[in-house]
Amino acid sequence: MTTISSLGTASMAAVRQYLRAAEAKGVATASLLATAGIGLTAQTPDDQRIDGARFQHFIRLLVEAADTPILGLETGDFVQPGSYSVLGYITMSCATLGEAIQAIVPYEKLVGDMGLTRFDLQGDTMHLVWQCAYTDPLVRPHLIDNVIASWIQYARWLGDDTDTAPIEVRLERPSPGAALEAAYTGRWGCPVIFGADDNRVVAARRLLDIPLRQPDPSLRRTLEAHARHQMASIQDDAALLTRVREAIRHQLLQGVSRQDLVAADLHMTRRTLQRRLNREGASYQALLDEVRQSLAADLLIHTDLAIADIADRLGFAAATSFHRLFRQRTGQTPTDFRRQHQD
Fold first, then answer.
1. CA-CA distance, 199 to 12, in Å (whole number)?
2. Does residue 179 share a domain with residue 30?
3. Residue 4 lies in a domain
């Protein structure tokens, strides 16, 4: 059975990095945030979470407004320790660049569920590999650029401008065009391979021993304890989201989609359910849309039902509403999606 996976959550710290880049380019973001359903003020804490689908939608809107094929690369210029939430402050308290890099894997979820990092040592080189979880074909290359560019820029900052240039960078995204490739090599000071099998920074192993500015083992232990507490909280909320998705799916298969019935299935009131979803930066409607799309993908691939009938089964008032949501989340029309997967 084919399903479209959840995009998890993202921290407000990650959103703010994009906002700084947008401000520098003169792009107004208030309307983009509102359209994506992201409520953010100066008082919003960096570790507050939002639904990953909203974050992906915001990046899409920003890419369209900025109208540049290298926006993701440019956002890397605006990385700060706070961009990585508490993980950023953990890395600052490490003794060496190697310690900071190895802190990424266990705590990267605090920044968001945008992807997964793997760290490998191969002879005299080290490899940081990142697997992107976001699915929007317009957003994905910019997100890849952002993550890799932020890594390289942040390592340069942590090393106090010591030469931390990679040996090479590999990107699965296609080239933005020969005229723009120089923007990558100019920033990173190394060859960049586009259309690669994965997203990878290859650097000299000796960089792991670069000393950082202000190592503080005591502070690091305190921050890591805080990070573990946050991770546990995120996992508890993720378990709730999984249960809500399962309850919604069960209802849709019965031809209904009511929040009060979902809450009752989870032995809580509708108000309590909404409060717990809000704490995770999620909403019942966003989860409903996600499950609808997952079921839609199955029905499009494995049945010959007309698209209008699929829309009706999933509780849409009109086929046009189903068409609009499906295209917004996948970048494809239901017809194109069915044709591609059935072929």
1. 24
2. yes
3. no
Any residues with CB less than 8 A from the CB of 211 and at least 6 apart, and which?
95, 96
Question: Residue 334 is inside which H or E element, if any?
Answer: helix 334-342
For 38, counting Cβ atoms within 10 Å of its Cβ (0-12 exposed, 13-18 middle, 19+ buried), the class is: buried
Each residue's pLDDT tens digit, 226-279: 999 888 877 776 678 878 888 898 888 777 778 999 998 888 899 999 988 887
Cα distance between residue 28 and residue 19, in whole Å = 9
Q: Which residues pair with 193 in a beta bridge?
A: 170
Q: How many CB atoms within 10 Å of residue 206? A: 11
Please report, for the domain that includes residue 54, its CATH number: 3.90.1520.10
Counting other chains too, the contacts that 282-286 makes at CB distance below 8 Å and 24 or more residues apart are 282/9, 282/51, 282/241, 283/37, 283/51, 284/244, 284/259, 286/37, 286/51, 286/53, 286/54
The H or E element that residue 200 is part of is strand 199-204
How would residue 2 be classed by pLDDT, with cut points 50, 70 and 90?
A: very low
How many domains, in total, are found in the chain?
Answer: 2
* Host domain of residue 230: 220-342
Alpha carbon 104 to chain centroid, angstroms: 15
Task: Please say if the pLDDT value at position 3 is more than 60.
Answer: no
Residue with tokens 């010591």: 162
Position with higher pLDDT, 87 vs 299: 87
34 within some domain? yes
Q: What is the 3-state secondary structure (H, E, C) of 277-307?
A: HHHCCCCHHHHHHHHHHHHHHHHHHHCCCCH
Higher pLDDT, 3 or 316: 316
| C-beta separation of 48 from 85 below 8 A | no
Distance in angstroms between the alpha carbons of the first and the last residue of the chain: 16
Question: Can you read off the two tokens belonging to residue 342?
Answer: 């059935």
Mean pLDDT of the chain: 89
114-135: buried (b, 16+ CB within 10 Å) or exposed (e) per residue?
Answer: bbebeeeeeeebbbbbbebbbe
> What pLDDT, on a 0 to 100 scale, did the predictor assign at position 307?
92
What is the pTM (predicted TM-score) of this model? 0.71
